């Protein structure tokens, strides 16, 4: 029964007194004016329900469950105790409601608005960017999951003002779910490794474990050392589970290995961030296409450069400085030469790994003709 006014209290007391008159009138004569306990009276649950129904006719809208309790108390205590019983119940209920109302009011006073969904939450449940923009945990979790799904660990402020401040790791760990934090740490670690520019970095195809292999390591398998989570032994060439003693399809034909090398000859990787790109036209001074990098490199030797001093800027063959890379050359001729060299190197690598296979028997591999670059 919820808290009521003084007038409603009087109505309830009057109703129960009326009910008690009905109870007393219906009792069989026992020689005493008032039995000591309810157990002495032959009242079952059906009888109590009937009395509750009658009192609800007098006071519609009251809590029937609470009235069941009051009726049973009235039967036990009789007319003299019914008023005290009703008041005690109402006072206890009022104290509980007052406590709940006070707590709710306190929470409303501390509530702040999320800068994304504009719903209000307690301040301690909010995530704050360095510029004091506040967001609720559900919105930040959704925002983080979308970024991490695209392998981006940079979780920035999403305020509509255009703020791009990065949310601190301590704030993320305080409010985001454990699984989201673990994913964020893995994505961040992988990005850091890739940004380090480590040569011969090899990833397990079944988890985020990575290692650096020797240039002379021509082994076929990769043994993942992340044994608690993965520990899979995989084939370095096809990126599938170890299929020994069966020879890898890539090795059995050699075609895939050589084709990849020939295709890769047309692709350059930024020496700064490792982002791949392909040159179509223009000079040999290349700028990384990534907006977050912008590193300049030489398309020929693939080294990081700063200006044009690295290049021989002579047009044609006259007075050319042969020890430097040319600023301009024919793109098609350059690509043809790169593909030819890559194919020969890949065939030699294949032969070293499969000494019993004749290089000429490799199916589907065309040997590009050499095209000299002036």
TrEMBL record:
InterPro entries: BRcat_RBR_RNF216, LUBAC_E3_Ligases, Rcat_RBR_RNF216, RING-HC_RBR_RNF216, TRIAD_supradom, Znf_RING/FYVE/PHD. It comes from the Eukaryota. Residues 1-25 form the signal peptide. Coiled coil: none annotated. Keywords: Metal-binding, Repeat, Signal, Transferase, Ubl conjugation pathway, Zinc, Zinc-finger. Pathway: Protein modification; protein ubiquitination. Residues 110-322 form the RING-type domain. The keyword Transmembrane does not apply. GO terms for molecular function: transferase activity; zinc ion binding. This is RING-type domain-containing protein. It comes from Tricholomella constricta.
């Amino acid at each position: 029964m919820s808290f009521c006014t003084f007038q409603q209290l009087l109505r309830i007391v009057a109703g129960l007194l009326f009910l008690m008159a009905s109870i007393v009138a219906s009792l069989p004569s026992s020689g005493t004016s008032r039995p000591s306990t309810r157990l002495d009276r032959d009242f079952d649950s059906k009888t109590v329900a009937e009395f509750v129904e009658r009192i609800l006719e007098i006071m519609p809208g009251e809590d029937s469950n609470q009235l069941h309790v009051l009726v049973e108390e009235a039967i036990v205590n009789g007319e003299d105790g019914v008023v005290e019983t009703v008041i005690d119940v109402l006072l206890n209920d009022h104290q509980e409601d007052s406590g709940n109302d006070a707590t709710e009011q306190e929470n409303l006073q501390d509530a702040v608005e999320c800068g994304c969904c504009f719903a209000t939450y307690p301040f301690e449940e909010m995530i704050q960017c360095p510029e004091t923009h506040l967001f609720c945990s559900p919105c930040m979790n959704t925002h983080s999951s979308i970024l991490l799904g695209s392998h981006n660990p940079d979780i920035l402020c999403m305020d509509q003002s255009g703020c791009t401040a990065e949310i601190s790791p301590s704030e993320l760990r305080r409010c985001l779910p454990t699984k989201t934090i673990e994913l964020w740490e893995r994505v961040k670690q992988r990005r850091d490794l890739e940004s380090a520019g480590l040569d011969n970095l090899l990833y397990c195809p079944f988890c985020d474990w990575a290692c650096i292999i020797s240039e002379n390591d021509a082994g076929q398998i990769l043994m993942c050392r992340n044994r608690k989570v993965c520990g899979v032994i995989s084939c370095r060439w096809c990126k599938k589970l170890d299929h020994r003693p069966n020879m890898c399809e890539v090795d059995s034909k050699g075609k895939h290995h050589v084709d990849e090398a020939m295709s890769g000859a047309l692709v350059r990787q930024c020496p700064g961030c490792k982002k791949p790109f392909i040159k179509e036209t223009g000079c040999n001074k290349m700028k990384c296409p990534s907006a977050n990098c912008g590193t300049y490199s030489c398309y020929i030797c693939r080294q990081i450069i700063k200006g044009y001093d690295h290049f021989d800027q002579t047009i044609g063959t006259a007075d050319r400085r042969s020890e430097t890379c040319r600023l301009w050359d024919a793109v098609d001729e350059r690509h043809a030469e790169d593909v030819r060299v890559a194919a020969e190197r890949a065939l030699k690598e294949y032969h070293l790994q499969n000494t019993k296979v004749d290089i000429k028997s490799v199916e589907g591999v065309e040997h590009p003709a050499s095209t000299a670059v002036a």
